[in-house]
Design brief:
alpha+beta, 7-stranded mixed beta sheet
């Protein structure tokens, strides 16, 4: 899930930036073929971007020999556990996230269905109408309600227009779309729209590419000797009928910009500097997107040991301690020797009698490196939402903590090992021993993950999960 979200974000940002570069530097120039190449490379790069990673400074990923208290790396959103049940915040968050996912999938299915529907429309036109093959081009006779358009090697045109003035020019225009394989550009854009339908720059890019197609076809017709004035008049006189968006329509809603471009003086050689400048900026963005910078991290581990001298008061089955003189060790010795209970202290100066639980902590081979950031991050079955829901349903608010009014956020660090198992579970930042133990128990019992990978190889990756215990 995380990988899919990253793909959509990176591709979307790339589309936005490259579209802006085209609009600012290239759109008004008459280098139509060069513009088309730039636009197609922009789309291709945006698709491939999430898979492109280059290292500039450091050939190896940054790694640490052991995990330290660092709740700022691979830190997921906190799971909140209430003293009287599971977190409503978690469920609400999961519900909101599900709604976003469902809306996105609904949009994807809508545009996929629209694309298939329009393909079927074209196939029906081919099957139900007369098709005449001349060379490699097939001419399909359609009714007057459709303006002329082309798709792959088919030209769809109303036979009644054959006697009209300008018919040959319209035909030449559609033939250019076929010769230059514009349909393939359109199909790629439609497929990209399935996944980026929510991105306004996707729609801008579709328009400017279609606009570029029309400019290229118009330029080819004019280069054949057609008068620009006559051709502009032909554009104005054309009846706009039904349109199939996945095809190249002669009367696509770009008449004004096409006429304006026909009247435009060809860009001078000096204008090529704008093109070069735009390409250089795009190249810089490629490097910025695809390169991972070297990162130097110095980790200082400080262990603070505190001694606390206390005065013990025993009330029924509960133990309370006030800070005074001798320390906790004497108290522990009273309950030592095979007892099912142990004495622990929390950060508030309280000492609690808690039941012992045996938790087996898996450890990694000390020689295995632990990564913080890799090309393919580990993924819990079902994604982060499923992980948070699993923790929320598995964890129990310790009764002893509830009775003593203890609450707070526990940070648990762990390693998703090369085989996907969870190991090296540690408390990065604790609140209270009872809460810490419960958080550690649940995290240590997590099922297998999809392991993280670096350069195609499974590696150990550090993760941190905050669990927020709140009393209602």
């Amino acid at each position: 899930m995380n990988s899919a979200v990253n793909f959509l974000i990176e591709s979307g940002v790339s589309l936005a930036l490259l579209s802006l570069i085209y609009i600012l530097f290239l759109r008004k120039e008459t280098f139509f073929r060069l513009n088309r190449i730039f636009l197609l490379i922009s789309v291709t790069f945006s698709i491939l971007l999430p898979f492109l990673k280059f290292r500039v400074y450091n050939p190896q990923p940054v790694l640490l020999a052991e995990i330290t208290v660092t709740p700022y790396r691979n830190l997921m959103e906190a799971v909140t556990i209430y003293g009287r049940g599971f977190s409503g915040t978690v469920e609400q968050s999961i519900s909101s996230s599900k709604i976003i996912i469902l809306v996105y999938l609904a949009g994807l299915l809508f545009f996929l269905g629209r694309f298939v529907f329009r393909l079927i429309q074209i196939l029906i036109l081919i099957r139900k109408n007369q098709v005449e093959k001349i060379g490699l081009v097939k001419f399909v006779s359609i009714d007057k309600y459709f303006s002329p358009f082309s798709f792959l090697s088919y030209v769809f045109i109303n036979p009644e227009k054959r006697g009209e003035k300008g018919y040959e020019k319209m035909l030449a225009h559609e033939m250019e779309h076929i010769k230059q394989s514009h349909t393939f550009d359109v199909i790629i854009l439609e497929i990209m729209t399935f996944f980026q339908w929510f991105n306004p720059f996707m729609w801008i890019l579709k328009r400017v590419i279609r606009e570029n197609h029309e400019f290229l076809a118009d330029q080819a017709v004019l280069n054949s000797g057609v008068s620009p004035a006559q051709y502009k008049q032909l554009l104005l006189n054309q009846f706009v009928g039904g349109q199939l968006v996945i095809a190249n329509n002669f009367n696509y809603s770009l008449i004004k910009s096409r006429i304006k471009m026909i009247s435009k003086i060809k860009s001078s050689k000096l204008a090529i500097t704008k093109v070069v400048f735009g390409i250089l900026i795009a190249a810089a963005l490629v490097i910025a997107f695809a390169c991972e910078q070297k990162e130097s991290i110095e980790v200082e581990q400080t262990v603070e040991e505190q001694s606390m001298e206390m005065k013990l008061t025993l009330l029924d089955e509960k133990i309370k301690i006030e800070a005074t003189s001798e320390g906790l060790e004497k108290l522990k010795s009273i309950f030592s020797g095979g007892s099912d209970f142990e004495i622990v202290n929390d950060s508030f100066g309280n000492v609690l009698l808690v039941k012992k639980e045996i938790v087996t902590i898996k450890k990694l081979d000390s020689e295995d490196p632990i990564f913080f950031i890799v090309e393919d991050m580990p993924e819990f079955p079902g994604g982060e939402l499923a992980l948070r829901k699993y923790i929320a349903s598995a964890i129990k608010y310790p009764k002893v903590a509830q009775e003593n009014g203890v609450q707070g956020k526990v940070y648990v660090t762990f390693v998703v090992s090369k085989d996907g198992t969870v190991a090296n579970c540690k408390i990065a930042r604790g609140v209270n021993p009872s809460l810490d133990k419960e958080a550690l128990r649940v995290v240590n019992g997590l099922p297998k993950w999809k392991p993280g990978k670096q350069r195609g190889q499974a590696v150990n990756v550090s993760y941190t999960v905050p669990i927020n215990f709140v009393l209602q």
